[in-house]
Structure formats: C-alpha cells, structure tokens
Design brief:
This protein is mainly β. Helices cover about 10% and strands about 30% of the residues. It has two domains: about 190 residues, Elongation Factor Tu (Ef-tu), domain 3 (Beta Barrel), CATH 2.40.30.10; about 60 residues, SH3 type barrels. The protein contains five helices and 17 strands. The longest helix is centred in the N-terminal third of the chain and has 11 residues.
C-alpha cells in the first residue's frame, strides 16, 4: 500500500524498514534520495514513492544490498526454521488469505453495492452484477452472457473501465484490445521526494509494482498535480485511483494518484464518490 508509507516514521529519531529499497544523502544539498534496491524482482520503491523527505531522512533500509535469496539464507542460519521458511506475503499484509477473501474484507468497510450494469464498448448492456467494489480495470471478466462466444469466439473479456455513478463497467474482447491502453494521464496528491528538483530527460513511470516502467514526459500542473505523457509506448490497464511513481536512472523522484486517464481507450476520471454513502 503506497499510502501506508507516505509519512513513515516521523515521530522517531531513526527507524529500520524491511522494504527492499536504498537511500543515500546528496552531499551537496544534504537531502535524502530513494533508489531501487539490488534485487530488481523484490524492489519496493514503488510503495515508498510518496514518502516525505523528513521520513526518508530518518529511515534505514538494511535489505538494500541483499537479494531475497540471500536474506532467506541468512534467516536459515539465524532464525528458527518455521520462521525462516515462512512463505512471502502477497497482496495486503494485513489480510490473511487463509482466513478470509479480499472481497469479504472490502465488504466489511464498504456499503452494500448497488446494481451494476455490465456494458460492451458500444454501450450495449449485457448483464447486471453487484460486484462493482470487486472489479478492477485490467482483470479478466468473470461475467457470462449469451452473445459472448458469437462476439468473441473462444476469447476472454477484460474490464476496460468502470464508473461509480451510475455504477457500471465496460468489458472488451481480449487483453490486447486498444481500450486497454492509455497514452497518459493526470495525477493528483503528488509528492516530490525532493520538491526543488524537477525531473529530467530520461524519466520513466510505473503504475504497478513490477510492471515494466515506461519512458515519459512530466508536466507540472500546479500544487500537487502533474501530467504524465508516455513517449514510446502506451501503458496497459491504467485506471483512476491507481498509484503512480516516477524514476530517473534508478532514483525514485515521487508519486501520486491517477485522476484522469487519457485515450488510448476512453477517457476515465476519478469521480468524487462518498464510499460510505
């Protein structure tokens, strides 16, 4: 969760973090900088992209120069076996998959969903569901409807966009459908780890942990808002509400929350919805 790491250990003098990330201090400015870890498969700077300069300056990353395999080996030598061989956590660390499903966890905190229309890209309604809270842009659709095989023989349908008011989501034929891609977006609640340094040429953006970063240009739209435009390839499965982070040569510059998604697909906006309504 990116938001969990935004403020970090502000009320302590110094803290250790178990994230796979690196931090160093610029000797000219005295400011802290955040870098990708040695292990590219486990790198977690995406989740730290909105950390404040104050919090970063007080945080140590003991795993910065180790791979996951090296950490496992040290654990086997230093810790009881049942701890050292504990499986890696996936998803939200505070939702135990063996105890309850993620959809059940969401239902605990969200109001009962209204009937949600399932639409094709031309607006044709093909069904209703109550799963609006549990549908994510980019996932394979689980809904079945009579025209499915006729319109997309042997193929799968994917969620291309969703709306909260009125509740609906649009599905398209195939993972590589053009509406699954976006050429850019605007983001809000933006945090620069070093507010005095604007990104240079060679910046890349990433909207999912471990998703391949894409080259981009960044435009400042005023306090807390930026526009990200992809320059070489479009991004797959971009949705309002997602976190985004940017890097320059391995250094994480900051991040925010996607607000509007630009074509490559239809334009979507992060709507002002009262989720406790």
């Amino acid at each position: 969760m990116v938001g969990c790491n935004r403020w970090g250990p502000l009320r302590v003098f110094l803290a250790n973090s178990g994230h796979y990330a690196r931090a160093s201090v610029n000797t000219k400015t005295g400011k802290s900088a955040l870098f990708r870890s040695r292990d590219p498969k486990k790198d977690q700077t995406f989740f730290l992209s909105q950390i404040s300069q104050e919090a970063l300056s007080r945080t140590l990353f003991p795993l910065a120069y180790y791979t996951k395999e090296q950490v496992r080996e040290m654990a086997l030598n230093l810790l009881p076996t049942h701890i050292a061989k504990k499986p890696s956590s996936r998803g939200l660390c505070f939702v135990e998959p063996s105890e309850r499903r993620f959809s059940d966890f969401l239902s605990t905190y969200l109001s009962h969903p209204k009937t949600t229309a399932v639409l094709l890209e031309d607006g044709t309604k093909v069904g209703d569901t109550y799963a609006i809270w549990h549908v994510t842009v980019g996932e394979r659709s689980r809904i079945s409807f009579p025209q499915s095989q006729k319109l997309n023989p042997g193929g799968a349908w994917y969620v291309a966009s969703k709306r909260m008011d009125p509740p609906s989501y649009t599905i398209v034929a195939g993972r590589e459908h053009p509406k699954m891609y976006s050429g850019g977006f605007t983001a809000k609640d933006w945090t620069w780890i070093d507010e005095e340094e604007f990104p240079k040429r060679g910046t890349v953006a990433q909207i999912r942990h471990q998703q391949a970063p894409l080259k981009c240009l960044i435009t400042d739209l005023g306090p807390g808002r930026v526009r990200v435009k992809f320059t070489h390839a479009k991004a797959w499965g971009v949705a309002p509400g997602q976190a985004v982070a940017v890097w320059h040569h391995g250094r994480c510059l900051g991040g925010g929350t996607i607000e509007f998604v630009e074509p490559g697909g239809e334009t979507m906006a992060l709507e002002n919805v009262d989720y406790n309504e």
